[in-house]
Write a structure and sequence with these properties.
The protein has 190 residues and is of the alpha/beta class. It has a domain at 2-27 and 79-116 and 155-187: P-loop containing nucleotide triphosphate hydrolases (Rossmann fold). The chain has helices at residues 14-25, 32-42, 45-55, 62-75, 91-102, 118-132, 135-138, 140-154, 156-162, 176-187, and strands at residues 2-7, 28-31, 81-85, 110-115, 167-171. The longest helix is centred in the middle third of the chain and has 15 residues, at 118-132. It is globular. The structure holds BIS(adenosine)-5'-tetraphosphate (B4P).
Length: 190
Amino acid sequence: MLNLVLFGPPGAGKGTQSQNLIQKHALIHLSTGDLLRNEIAKGTELGLEAKKLMDAGLLVPDEVVISMISNKLDAEKDARGFIFDGFPRTVAQAAALDTLLESKGAGISGMIALEVKDEELQTRLLLRGKESGRPDDANPEVIGKRITEYNNKTAPVASYYKEQNKYKSINGIGTVEEIFTALNEVIEKY
Ligand code: B4P
């Protein structure tokens, strides 16, 4: 199985690149952000709770996202592999993902981080906010909070994979095509 963790701060291009990668490599895309927004759209209790945190730029509790991922892994038993986009976002989520995959006789092939400076992230997300209507992209303060949450809680996840010799980073600034090419150069070595 090819199981990739696509990593990087909010607005780094994870969602954008995942769309291209799933087609080329026939993988299943698991984006916890998309799963949570789906719960919000359906108006479920989970979605209503998650919305308050997401609109404030805060992370949703670990147990909520781990349980969503566990359900999705169970539902896709015949998958060739997965792209984990926006997950794991904490070290606890990374450890839980290893346990879930081990129980299925699988593991993470590698983490690839997209490196983008904070100013570029702000610009991209505010631009998307104008078109998407996503409340967490519309407000510079909320975007700043998301970047702070990333630096405090999510950036340490890179060390978790570095310790397993599974970490690679690439430049996330450039055209979508240039970054896609750089990602595939890493993936070809797995
Ligand atoms: P996500 O949905 O994961 O939001 P994101 O980090 O903003 O998305 P992404 O990084 O994929 O955006 P992309 O670069 O593709 O999470 C939203 C919220 O959900 C979180 O804040 C949190 O509250 C919650 N959540 C999700 N997962 C969680 C978890 N595991 N644990 C706890 N809470 C969780 O796109 C950004 C923009 O950049 C786009 O407009 C795109 O067109 C543009 N772009 C992409 N590539 C570009 C390039 N090369 N050049 C110029 N622009 C580019």
